[in-house]
Structure formats: structure tokens, C-alpha cells
Amino acid sequence: MKFQIVDAFTDTLFGGNPAGVVVIPDGKDYPEDEVMRRTAAELRYSETAFVKQEEDGVFRTRYFTPAAEVELCGHATIGSAYALMRFGMAQPGTVIRYETLAGAIDIVLREDSILMDMADPQAYGTIEGEEAVKELYRIMGIEAEGQGVWEKDPAVYLKPEKISTGLIDIMLPVKDEDELERINPDFPALTELSRRYDVVGVHAFTVNGKDGFIHARNFAPLYDIDEEAATGTSNGALAYYLYRYGILQPDTVNTVIQGEKMERPSRIATQIVLQDEQPKIRVGGLAVTLAEGEIDI
User: Fold this and answer.
1) CA nearest neighbour of 84 among 268, 289, 295
2) Residue 185 pLDDT greater than 90, yes or no
3) How far apart are CA 153 and CA 167, in angstroms?
4) Confidence band, pLDDT 50/70/90 cuts, at residue 160
């Protein structure tokens, strides 16, 4: 089977978020689930995409972390779509479709970027109660007081909320970049909290970036991912969250900076498009290949 290691959401090697990509040969079916999980663990990246072409322009895609299968992974989607172009299985200037456990996803392939439609955004409720909010921030290693401020409009107070564009994460607002950098989670406690809230993890962010961009950090220890350098699904969810608060506007392409603490800075583009007055979320970026070859499974 062909494989690649791809850095997604960057145009520079050793930036962005790396993902494994395994292409299932024509006429072959997926290996057993445990084999794919162990393959993902052997590759040692947070997610590996296993891609099987169903028909021209349509690919069934499954995603495995070293611990378990997940329904969707944004950076592995961007990375695997780039790999398909490298392998000659898809062409720039076209739209391909991924059939995933989270539903069908259309992906626009361009020479300068790859943009993917996220699953329909859904809100699953804010974290309610003073003690619950304090517990959440305490587990993340910071205090809850004063974290939901938006400097452009102090009347807007952001609250921790569960949002999904394919995977459910807790959106965790913090007041500035310095506070974002100070986050130091209690990972065993965060694992239990993620299980209790039935979420993949916590996506911490600030809209008060010194450079005018949104800055974010993502933590998912429940799936053996302490921190990720770029997360497409989580930033898609963040775009929807900020749209609901009136911070992001339709059609504008916004930039999220992630991975700085890990010394793998990533730039993730997000866009909200209204279709029949309903918001659709797109997430995209660039990708580069680190390695490719054959894998025997």
C-alpha cells in the first residue's frame, strides 16, 4: 500500500500538523480495524487517514488515532487530499468527495490551497454553572475569572461551549495570547472531563491576538493527543462559534494561528458561507510531503 507523511496547514516542512496517509489499492478492502489502529500507532502521528477510491472523484476515508477510530480529522483530510494529487489520483482545479463516518465532505483542490466543507455545524450547549466553569479552567491550568473578554466589544462575553463540525470539542475562550501560552493541562483530569462531557477535547483560543489573528491551542488526551499543532475540525467549530457571537462575518476568510507553543506554527483558513441562510463552514490551507513509500499491511 502507498503511504505518505504530510505536513498540513503549512507550506514549510516541519510546520503545521503532520498526518499519515495510507491509500488502499484498487480491488482491495480495508484491513481490520485493529490493524489500522496499530498502523496509526506505528506511524506515531496523531491521525492517519486510510483512503479508498470508490469511483472517479469519490473516496471513502477512515481516520485512526493511535488509540481509536475517529469520525473525521481536518488536517488528515487536507493532507490526504494533497497526497492524492501527488499520487495522480486527483487533479488541481477539481472538487472531490470524501465519504466519512461524519458524512460526505466536498474538497476543492487548488494549486495554492485545499478547502474542505465541514459537516453541518451544531451547538451542544454551554458549560453551565460557576463550579463547572471553574473546574474546566482549573484543569487547563488557568483561572476562569476574566477569560471571556473580547477587546473590541467588552459587552460580548464568550462562554465555554460544546461545538461540532464533525467532532465535538469544548471551545474555551481565554483573554489574550499570554494566557493562552500559560495553559498547562492536568491531562489525566482532562481525559476524564472529556469522557464525562462526551467530547474529543478542548480547543482553547483568543480573539485578542496581538497580530489581529485568532490564536488557538488544541488538547485531546482522551485520544492520546496531548496537543495538536493544527486541527481543521476544531477550527471549523470555532468559526461557527464566533459567527454565532457576531465576531466573524460570512464570506470573509479568517486566519487561525495554532501550534506556536509546539514550535510547529500553522495557519488555518476558515470561511463561513451562507447557503439558504444556513451557515456552511469551510476550512483549508496548504500542505507539503515529508516522506512517501510503500507500507506492508
Assistant:
1) 289
2) yes
3) 29
4) very high
99-143 pLDDT, tens digit per residue, is 999 889 999 998 888 989 988 999 999 999 999 999 999 999 999
Mean pLDDT of the chain: 95
Other beta carbons within 10 angstroms of residue 95's beta carbon come to 12
CATH number of 122-280: 3.10.310.10
Question: Which class would CATH give 2-119+285-294?
Answer: alpha beta
Provide the annotated active-site residues.
Answer: 47
DSSP code string of the chain: -EEEEEEES-SSTT-SEEEEEEEPPTT-PPPPHHHHHHHHHHHTSS-EEEEEEEETTEEEEEEE-SS-EES--HHHHHHHHHHHHHTTSS-TT-EEEEEETTEEEEEEE-SS-EEEEPPPPEEEEE--SHHHHHHHHHHTTS--TTTTB-TT-TT-B---EEEESSSEEEEEE-SSHHHHHH----HHHHHHHHHHHT-SEEEEEES--TTSSEEEEEEEGGGTEEEES--HHHHHHHHHHHHHTTSS-TT-EEEEEE-TTTT--EEEEEEEEEETTEEEEEEEE-EEEEEEEE---
At residue 112, the pLDDT reads 80
Among candidate residues 107, 22, 92, 102, the one with its CA nearest the CA of residue 58 = 107
Task: Answer whether 23's CB lies under 8 Å from 36's CB.
Answer: no
**pLDDT at 163 (0 to 100):** 98
Q: What is the pLDDT of residues 67-84, one digit of tens each?
A: 999 998 989 999 999 999
Every domain range in the chain assigned CATH 3.10.310.10: 2-119+285-294, 122-280
